[in-house]
Amino acid sequence: MTTIQKLNSTKLPIIAFDKSLEQFRDKDLFPKKMEKAKEILKKAGLPNFKK
Amino acid sequence: MNRPKYLYKSEEEFKVYSFYSEGIKGLIKKMIVFSFTGESNIYNLGFGDYNAETKTIDDEIITNNGDSLKVLATVASTVYAFTEKYPDALVFATGSNNLRTRLYRMGITNNLEEIKVDFEVFGLRVDNNVWEEFISGEDYDAFIVKRKKI
Hints:
The complex is a heterodimer.
Chain A lengths: L2 H6 L6 E3 L13 H14 L7
Chain B lengths: L7 E3 L5 E8 L2 E11 L5 E10 L4 E3 L9 H18 L4 E4 L4 H13 L1 H7 E7 L5 E3 L6 E8 L3
Parallel strand pairs in B: 4-6
Antiparallel strand pairs in B: 1-2, 2-3, 3-4, 4-5, 6-9, 7-8, 7-9
């Protein structure tokens, strides 16, 4: 079975690492969307989770 | 989700992911970022096309590369990866515009039964701004998922 076949047949992810992606971590890459998220969470709060 | 998806890469904290969409417009680099909102355990899912020149991610672009289901399955897979690492995290998602939000809703609707096995899924109703358990066909403005405890 190839890697892509394995990936497609399972819910658990198969991940390769790429150190170059670290530069994007903890940066405000989506300021408009983040602002919208905060606004919604402030107004609507959180759902009632069961568990 | 057991559907065709792209192989993707991540950094070691499992918060940033990238993959290439392959379609009628060629190879397009996509990025997915889980960003802490400042609220306890809530992370915002950001997703879009990577612009190598500006080193930014465009989350408003409509790519039309003909592979939206595969792209959505890949994004969903990164939610699995992220919540494997951070099982108590809540993942918040909303589109950058109505079309994008509908796309997210379609992705959840098409895979709802499978997603509900592992996640609690909530939608924020457009009409009354209240969270409810996700119902297929309803119009939502935002979504929150939380990994179920096993």
